[in-house]
Structure formats: structure tokens, C-alpha cells
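Hi again,

Forgot to attach this to my earlier email, sorry! This is the prediction with 3-methyl-2-oxobutanoic acid bound. I've pasted everything inline since the attachment limit keeps bouncing my files.
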Amino acid sequence: MSTFTIDTSTSRATPTPVPGKRTTAPAIRARKSGGKTEQPVVMLTAYTMRMAQLLDPYCDMLLVGDSLGQVIYGLPSTIPVTMEMMCAHGAAVVRGSWHALVAVDMPFGSYEASPEAAFESASRIMKETGCAAVKLEGGEAMAPTIEFLTHRGIPVIGHVGLTPQAVNVLGGYGARGREDAEKKTIIDDARAVDQAGAFCIVVEGVLEGIANDITKAVAAPVIGIGASAQCDGQVLVTDDMLGMFERTPRFVKRYDDLAGRIGDAVRNYADEVRSRSFPTADQTYQPK
Ligand code: KIV
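C-alpha cells for the complex follow:
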């Protein structure tokens, strides 16, 4: 069943103001012209309707990342994430946003086998969620797939450098490109993805100099995460930057301490329930 067609008009999902014209893939691509980006692209992850509503006014793109495997489902990696998870959360984020371009990650195993398999998965994601783009991991090996998809109406975001779905090949989540051969591979990957038609490229977990070299070398906007402030834009996992977790990668800046603040609020609630000071007259119904 398509989650996209559920009627949410009476639910808390209804976005305000009235949905307008969304940011498009060509508009993001056009941010970089002649190798320069005047206005860096702002991107964050979103997995739920309400978070999408809160982020949308400030972001150019919302990414329904497969990081939801760890962040929402408590999985050990992104490998077990399914199409069903991505479609359900993708549809929720589209329902909660009206301005940002929503891109959905293609889960591990849904696109690597062939361009045709990738098309089947990507078209399902677009139909079921209403998103405007997909993201897939990989460099030169994925270039033919990116070309196949973009020529068939599917805007693609590339993802090179540290590619978490390849954790078992890479051997961990450490920064990449410390050796010359690996540095060259990452830059070649970015070039291949660019030439294949990706409208922007996520570069994750690489030495700053490599991110700068890639940003200069490719035509598409480079969206950095654990990369460089010189990239054409930045993305972070929202729960990380809001301080929902005690442990985060080194490249995360915490802009809040939501975990601490939730703890304080819930401790107050628990104290008031136990002392019978909640609910008060303000929260109870009396005869008229
Ligand atoms: O899955 C994800 O959230 C991502 C971002 C970290 C880029 O791929």
C-alpha cells in the first residue's frame, strides 16, 4: 500500500502555511556555477513528520537517511534497513514539509545489483513517498546506475568517501583518504558520480584537503559531513546536532543538549505524578 496517499487532513501532520513550491533538484544543482557557490546548501536528516515541520523552514534539503536504522530503530548499522522503513519515514517527512527538497536514501541491497534493480527500487520510493530525489552510496562502480536513473527521471544524490553501507569492506567508520592511493580513489569516485549526472554529492568522513580538492574538481554542489567548511553545503544527522546522543562522531557539533533537557522534563513529570501535583485544575474537566 502506498503510504503517500493516506489522508492526513485531520491529523497533526497538516503543514502550515499552505504547501508552496518546493525546492527542486535543478535549483540545488544551479547553486554552484562556474565552480562557486554563493549560498551554501543547508541539509539535515529527518525521519518523522514533526521533525520535518520543524526543520523545513531553515533547510534547502531534508534527507531521510538510512541512519534511521541506528537513530530510530537501534540497529547496529545501516545494513539491515529495509525499503519498507525508508518508504514509511520518507512519506512522513514529505507530509511534514512544504519547502525543502526531500531526498530518501536507497537502502543497502536495493540498488547495487544493476541499474534496472536500482530503477525499480528508486521508482517505488518516489511513488510511495512523494520525495523528489534519492541518494545512493558509491563512486565509479555506481556511475552507470546514476546515469541510468537520471536519464529516466530520477534525480540522484551521490555519496562518496566514508560510505556507511560499506562498513564491512572498509572495516570501520574512520576518516578516509589518509593514504595517497585511497585519496586518489575518493577523488576519482566523486568525479565519476559528477559526470554520471548526480545533482549534488555528499562527501563524508574524509580529510579536509580531500574535501576541498573534490569541491574544486566537480561541477555539482558538494555537501560535506565530516569534510570541510569549504564544501558547497553541509549535512548532519539532526539527532546528533541536537544532542540526543552521548556518543557522536568527532565531526558533529552539538547545537543543543536535547537529551539532557528531555531528562529534566521527564524527571519533573515523574516527580509531579508521584506527589499527585499533576494534573491540576488546568488539566482536568469539571461539570459546566
Ligand atoms: O544516512 C544518513 O543520514 C546519511 C547522512 C549522514 C549523509 O547518509
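Residues 1-7 have pLDDT under 50 and may be disordered. The CA atoms of residues 74 and 254 lie 20 Å apart.

That should be everything now.

G.
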